[in-house]
Write a structure and sequence with these properties.
Elements: E1 2-4, E2 13-18, H1 29-32, E3 38-46, E4 49-63, E5 70-85, E6 108-112, E7 116-118, H2 119-130, H3 140-146
């Protein structure tokens, strides 16, 4: 779903999607399966750039990173992006050097070569970035109860190669 950013008026334009929206019907199945979702996005001009704000709500199936059981993980993502349209700048090096800020409260910046913005691809990436890297059970007590008990065994002392020499008798 490509939108022309130059056609958006001063008040901005709101986009709302859910699982029954034709534009994005099967776009997120690789991330959340067939689970319901709600996406609200506001795109508005901001000087010579555009601000994209919104939220994503859904849930998806994953495996608990602590106990290994299947769980449903809530997905509550927020987006705050500034899109700047400009020609690609020449680089002096072959390596892209990204300096990511640790402050997640401020907006991120994306540079585009043209005013055509692929909103569907952007939303897909925002949903993927909003997923929890290490999902855990909501109830920690239940998670700990599901974990298999650890078998404590006596660790062998010394190097295992010397075990064969233990019973050798030396003659003087």
């Amino acid at each position: 779903m490509i939108i022309d950013l130059l056609s958006i008026d001063e008040e901005g334009k709101t986009f709302s999607f859910n699982e029954s929206s034709d534009e994005v019907e099967s776009l997120f199945t690789d991330l959340i399966g067939k689970n319901p979702f709600t996406i609200e996005v506001l795109v508005k001009p901001l000087g010579n750039s555009y601000q994209i704000q919104g939220r994503i709500q859904s849930h998806y199936g994953d495996v608990c990173s602590r106990c290994g059981y299947d769980i449903e993980v809530p997905l509550n993502g927020r987006m705050n992006e500034i899109v700047v349209i400009e020609k690609e700048r020449p680089r002096n090096t072959q390596v892209s050097q990204s300096q990511r800020s640790l402050d997640e409260s401020g907006p991120d910046v994306t540079y585009l070569k043209s005013p055509e913005f692929d909103l569907a691809e952007f939303l897909h990436e925002m949903m993927a970035a909003s997923q929890n890297r290490y999902p855990r059970c909501v109830d920690e007590a239940q998670c700990e109860a599901q974990q298999a008990p650890v078998q404590e065994s006596q660790a062998p002392s010394g190097h295992p190669g010397f075990a064969a020499l233990k019973n050798i008798k030396l003659k003087h």
